[in-house]
Amino acid sequence: MADQYFLKAKEGLFCQADESLENLHYALSYDAEHAPANLLMGQIIAGQLGDWNQAAAFVNQALATRPDDFGTCLQAAWFWMGRLDLDRVDGLVQHLKTLDYAFWEEIHFLESRVAERKGDLKAARKAVKQARLQVAVQGGAQFLESEDNRLKAKQKLLNPKRKKGKGKSKKAKKRKKSD
């Protein structure tokens, strides 16, 4: 029964958020440990109501129920990324790497976002390149290529390289020679 209410909630999510919340409450009343319902409830509460503390309780419940489920851990990591809790995201990324059933391109993409938030654009680009090596879908490869280009442009904006031969003006060089 919990699955049925969860699916109803998921179907109406974009047009009927109130009804989705009601269906999630029903789902969780049948099974308080229903991880997908807890995750979705946390995402709705954070995104629509802005109550991150209450949302975090639902996400934590989902993680406690299914700690070794790749999808649950990945969605929880993106939730914590939204809160900019980078230490928690790092911990989940390390855990994701230990799971048997892992989508490495997702893990590396998440790593790139964490590195970017920490200001390490070189590590972010490296992680995107690792994700590109793992991706099996053409659309995913194009997306990751555009991400790499975005990070490269950001890197250039933040760390412009000085051109050789530039620096002192010709007048300054002449003054130095005449001294």
Which labels suit this protein?
single chain; 179 residues; mainly alpha; Serine Threonine Protein Phosphatase 5, Tetratricopeptide repeat; 2 domains
Description:
By secondary structure, the protein is mainly α. It has 2 domains: 1-83, Serine Threonine Protein Phosphatase 5, Tetratricopeptide repeat (Alpha Horseshoe); 103-157, no CATH class. The chain has helices at residues 2-11, 17-30, 35-49, 52-65, 70-82, 86-98, 104-117, 121-134, 138-158, 170-178. Helix 5 (70-82) runs parallel beside helix 7 (104-117).
What's the structural blueprint in terms of helices and strands?
Elements: H1 2-11, H2 17-30, H3 35-49, H4 52-65, H5 70-82, H6 86-98, H7 104-117, H8 121-134, H9 138-158, H10 170-178
- What's the CATH topology label of the largest domain? Serine Threonine Protein Phosphatase 5, Tetratricopeptide repeat
The biggest beta sheet is recorded as: none
Work out the count of structural domains. Answer: 2
Distance between the termini: 90 Å
CATH class of the largest domain: Mainly Alpha
User: What is the chain-wise order of helices and strands?
Assistant: HHHHHHHHHH
Number of helices: 10
Oligomer: single chain
Counting DSSP E segments of at least 2 residues, the number of strands comes to 0
